[in-house]
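retry 2 of 3: previous attempt timed out while embedding Fe4 H S5. Reduced batch size to 1 and resubmitted. Inputs unchanged:
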Amino acid sequence: MKCEYCEKEAVENIYGRYYCENHFVKYFLGKVRSIIDKFGINGRIAVALSGGKDSSACFHSLHKLKLDLLPFYINLGIESYSEICQKKAEELCNSLGYRLHIIDINEYGINLADEKKPCSVCGTAKRYLMNKFAYENNCKYVATGHNLSDVVTFALNNFMNANLMNFRGNRPYLEGKEEYKMVAKIKPLYWLKDKECMLYVYINRLRYAEEECPHAISAPTIQIKEWIHEMEGKKPGIMLNMAKSFWRLEEMIGSKAKLNICRKCGYASYSKICKFCKIRKR
Ligand code: Q46
Ligand code: ZN
Ligand code: ZN
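retry 2 succeeded.
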């Protein structure tokens, strides 16, 4: 099949349109640009690198769009996995001319191997440390590599568990709150599926870790993601519509939770002591 926009062979079919490598990359960057423009992103962005394909695609696309970036990596101290991922993130940064900033979770007294629910602790620690790093380094935003598949999976998982309190954070842009030391969050890959991120890293020959976190096997979201991809295969566009619906729902629900300042660390918290400080105390 030929590309819709030139004579070259197509490599991808997106919602019924065929794209060659060049035009696919243009499509991809156009989707990232649409998020940047819609929310008027202008200023330094701390980019969270995990060593995986999505954050690598996120960082590379923002670099291509010539934004002001500060890449960082959170070493979770998970056996050899964390070391491999750090190495890949460092290689990617070196190849693009950046220095990677490293944050070591063990320095905060957290050891995921000792935790009964490592993913829950890991999620809290990552959110906290990302924001702290961005805030302390005068960044206006934190960018993460969450893509369309992740956003829909996350929202569906909460929906299926009647967890409407956590039914937030699905939007591509979450405003910051200076008085709570909260930096704005952006998801530049919001409109792009897993498979498209994979194709982007492949075409651009980006370095990324193919290894999975050993704790990922027990995550219930893996099955949900497989299921939505199967549905998407049968009915292309269904994921896009779900993301739009969840976005609207989130706006309608709003957030009634009252924000405080953690008495221990001075960052935002929904109780007197933030979740991160509670984990550290434990
Ligand atoms: S939450 Fe769980 Fe992931 Fe953390 S412990 Fe590994 S699988 S890395 S996104
Ligand atoms: Zn083309
Ligand atoms: Zn705290």
